[in-house]
Write a structure and sequence with these properties.
26 helices, binds ligand MGD, Rossmann fold, 6-stranded mixed β-barrel, 30 strands, globular, 4 domains, single chain, about 750 residues
Length: about 750
């Protein structure tokens, strides 16, 4: 009798059906209610059963031999053999080591930031698990904000008086409002349906592309300001712009508004603070440089006439300015975010439907979607007694500079002295910049523990690796912000190898530390699910949302809750616009801050008191462009989520090294043809890549997506095509200290033709 069965589950890239047979995932298929399902799950059957799964608890040989405090045990990280041990033995060794570090150095020596996307599912969320566990043991040094939006999270509260994520999920024009009211959609960095395939915790209806079809039909003018045409669905005007130069372009647009009497002075006077201090900079009264279209044209690679005409049409129509997250994942990434807000304020349309500013449409799914929010279904992480933290992207600095001071958003902080790192649900050797530098920094801690389903580059560089289950091997509940669906996520197959759920791994460690009761509160994972679900259901019922009983959800597999459409007509900042005194913003002035006394008081040369053009250290206008003449942008991969399931993609012949896209002009100058294997390099590092030629990328810009599993050869050249072998590890500024991944110059040379192979 066949035991073939098909059930639905959810993931960061949406819902899909999984067919299992004889304890294996044999097929996946589309979720029928998703208008535009993602193709990402196609790799899943191969990835879940891949030979690179961690089979058993594994401890690195020289760490085991020499002990954690001997420097000889560290040098081989990444190059060493692992010894497989029975679960209980490995858990005891790890627990003893956590205890030792606690006793000798205190919990301030444990770094548990553990940044990463992990998997969907409310209870088995890896970060929630590791953070609760470390809190139970006495706390850990944490990390603040995200690689995605750290600069935005620092600047936006100063400007709008609201947390960036709250602004993005709440105070934003919904797609229906845009469809109805917006006449000109100006997209810095585009709005890319490839990126909106995914969202934290899942997005069930992939609808970005559908909205753009509607915009096309309605005749909305759409302008994609980006180095790549494909950053927006087809049909938009494409305004190629030098990466890193958007602030200059926005300033020039603002200059036209100011000098041609098109700036909404009434709006600026009523709703904004400090335009008076900004305007002299704009016109050049303070520094002798008028930020005119003629000034900006050579910086941006956009003609002065085009800039002028765009400014006029923005002023003459209902205009929505959108900004992709990528613009702030760059050196001085705070500036385009602040300047875009200023430009929108000058247009005077903030608070009008379909006008103003919106950040992050297209960066992830669910932004701009009208769904009533529900809270709950969160595994409590308890309090972290340790208050020490780092801005998330300063990990290598932290490990290399213990005790050294640094600035962050008005605070003078110091880097802690870390002896033990615990990572669970992230892949720093995928996500961090300048991986050679991280590799060096990674030699500092005495012990590194990782929970991971796969032998990623990070797992290979750990001392103790615990094999974790994937979400297909355990039972969970799925739900996400901006999504109306609620999923039962059945355990489809038994754990692969000896993998255990993170919860069970931490329960085991807690048992050895005599903290089991505190960690589990006496509940199994199934009991936790029921407990969290009951509270969530009660709370939802109180808010008049009919959530099914637990057993009913399990029977049904999923339900679509009546949450959609709740905010269709809500215009962002409408109340503030109606009465700025009665509904002030939570900024010091109660207004939109074009000049911030707070930021000015920090005295940061890399983030002054108003939006400013500050060229990045690396871009096409830098002197180093004579040696490394190409700007490399490193977008998110379309075929997967970051580095997840990469092992399955890398197995497909011709897929690795990863493709790098070049303009045919740049390729011809280097005798590179489509399919050639090339070396992408700069002063920091190198990787191999496979050339792909396209007119849809502007000359002098190359694009290499993130996600390949870092695999340097003896000379340090990454063989798979991970762009972070080359990117620069520097904070966005003293304000945000975010990742500057997109500010990177490179050169590309041919290694061999596709015909030589
Ligand atoms: N150059 C460059 N670099 C970038 C970016 C860029 O634009 N350019 N973008 C940055 C951004 S925005 C981000 S968000 C980061 C993403 O970086 P990460 O979030 O670190 O990338 P992922 O590949 O999603 O890593 C998640 C890891 O968790 C593991 N995992 C999945 N489920 C589980 C589980 O249940 N338990 C455990 N223990 N592990 C699990 C996966 O196997 C995977 O190794 O990359 C950043 N890096
Ligand atoms: N399929 C898929 N989707 C994803 C992810 C994934 O891994 N896979 N990751 C998710 C995550 S964690 C995040 S944070 C978001 C990220 O969302 P974003 O940050 O918006 O996306 P990126 O892919 O980094 O960049 C988008 C585009 O910005 C352009 N760009 C780069 N630099 C500049 C610049 O200086 N100026 C202008 N105008 N354009 C520039 C590039 O051409 C690039 O293609 O994506 C999410 N969506
Ligand atoms: Mo991200």
């Amino acid at each position: 009798m066949s035991n073939r069965i098909t059930r639905t589950t959810t993931s960061h890239w949406g819902a899909f059906n999984v067919t299992t047979e004889n304890d294996r995932i044999v097929a996946v298929s589309d979720f029928e209610y998703d208008p535009n399902p993602s193709a990402i799950p196609a790799s899943l059957p191969a990835a879940v059963h891949h030979r690179s799964r961690v089979a058993k608890p594994s401890i690195r040989q020289s760490w085991l031999k020499h002990g954690p405090q001997h420097s000889a045990s560290r040098v081989l990280r990444g190059d060493d053999k692992f010894v497989e041990l029975p679960w209980d033995e490995a858990l005891e060794i790890a627990a003893n080591e956590i205890n030792r570090v606690k006793q000798e150095h205190g919990n301030e020596a444990i770094f548990g930031g553990s940044y990463g996307w992990a998997s969907a599912g409310r209870f088995h969320h890896a970060l929630g698990q590791v953070h609760r566990f470390l809190n139970v043991t006495g706390g850990y040094v944490s990390s603040l904000a995200s690689y995605s939006t750290a600069a935005a999270q620092a600047i936006i509260p100063h400007v709008f008086g609201v947390h960036f994520l709250k602004l993005m999920w709440g105070e934003i024009n919904s797609w229906p409002l845009i469809a109805e009211h917006t006449e000109t959609l100006v997209m810095f960095g585009g709005i890319n349906p490839k990126n909106s395939q995914v969202s934290m915790g899942g997005v069930t209806h992939h609808e970005t592309a559908g909205w753009f079809e509607l915009f096309e039909k309605s005749g909305m003018r759409r302008i994609n300001i980006s180095p790549q045409r494909g950053d927006t669905p087809e049909g938009a005007e494409w305004l190629p712009v030098n990466p890193g130069s958007d602030t200059a372009l926005m300033l020039a647009l603002a200059y036209v508004l100011e000098t041609e009497g098109l700036a909404d002075q009434k709006f600026l006077a009523t709703y904004c603070q400090g335009y008076d201090q900004f305007a002299p900079y704009l016109t050049g009264a303070t520094d002798g440089i008028a930020k005119s279209p003629d000034w900006a044209a050579p910086l941006c690679g956009v003609s002065a006439q085009v800039i002028h005409d765009l400014a006029i049409s923005m002023a003459k129509s209902r205009t929505l300015i959108t900004v992709a997250w990528s613009l702030q994942r760059a050196e001085h990434g705070e500036q385009p975010y602040w300047m875009a807000a200023t430009l929108a304020a000058m247009l005077g349309q903030i608070g009008l439907p379909g006008g103003g500013i919106g950040y992050g449409y297209g960066a992830i799914g669910g932004i701009g979607v009208s769904v009533k929010r529900l809270s709950g279904l969160t595994f409590p992480q308890l309090e972290n007694p340790v208050k020490h933290f780092i801005p998330v992207a300063r990990i290598a600095d932290m490990l290399l500079k213990p005790g050294e001071p640094f600035d962050f958003n008005g605070q003078a902080l110091t880097y802690p002295n870390i002896k033990l790192v615990y990572w669970c649900g992230g892949n720093p050797f995928h996500h961090h910049q300048d991986l050679k530098r991280l590799n060096h920094a990674w030699q500092q801690p005495e012990t590194i523990i990782v929970n991971e389903p796969w032998w990623t580059a990070t797992a290979k560089r750990a001392d103790i690796v615990f094999p974790a289950t994937t979400s297909y091997e355990r039972h969970d509940i799925g739900r996400a912000e901006g999504d109306s669906y609620l999923f039962d996520m059945p355990a489809m197959i038994p754990p692969v190898g000896e993998a255990r759920d993170d919860y069970d791994i931490f329960t085991g460690l807690a048992r050895h530390l005599e903290l089991e009761e505190k960690f589990t509160e006496g509940r199994s994972s199934e009991q936790w699910l029921q407990h969290l679900y009951a509270a969530f259901r009660d709370e939802s019922l109180k808010n008049d949302v009919a959530v099914p009983e637990y057993d009913e959800l399990i029977r049904k597999n999923w339900v679509d809750l009546p949450l959609r459409g709740a905010q269709h007509s809500q215009t962002p900042f409408a109340e503030f616009r109606a009465d700025p005194t009665a509904a002030p913003l939570q900024t010091p002035s109660g207004k939109i801050e074009i000049y911030s006394d707070t930021i000015a008081s920090f005295n940061y040369s890399d983030c002054p008191g108003h939006p400013t053009w500050l060229p990045p250290g690396e871009w096409l206008g830098a002197t180093s462009a004579s040696e490394f003449p190409l700007h490399m942008v490193t977008p998110q991969p379309g075929d997967k989520l970051h580095s997840q399931m990469e092992c399955a993609i890398a197995d497909v012949p011709g897929e690795r090294p990863a493709p790098v896209t070049l303009n045919p002009i740049d390729a011809a100058q280097r005798q590179i043809k489509a399919g050639d294997i090339v070396r992408v390099f700069n002063q920091r590092g190198a990787c191999l890549a496979r050339a792909q030629l396209s007119d849809d990328i502007m000359p002098k810009v190359v694009s290499l997506s993130t996600g390949a599993w870092y695999d340097p050869d003896a000379n340090g050249t990454d063989q798979q095509g991970n762009p972070n072998a080359l990117t620069r590890d520097v904070g966005t500024s003293s304000l945000g200290q975010g990742s500057s991944a997109h500010s990177c110059l490179v050169e590309v040379v041919k290694v061999h033709s596709n015909t030589d192979m």
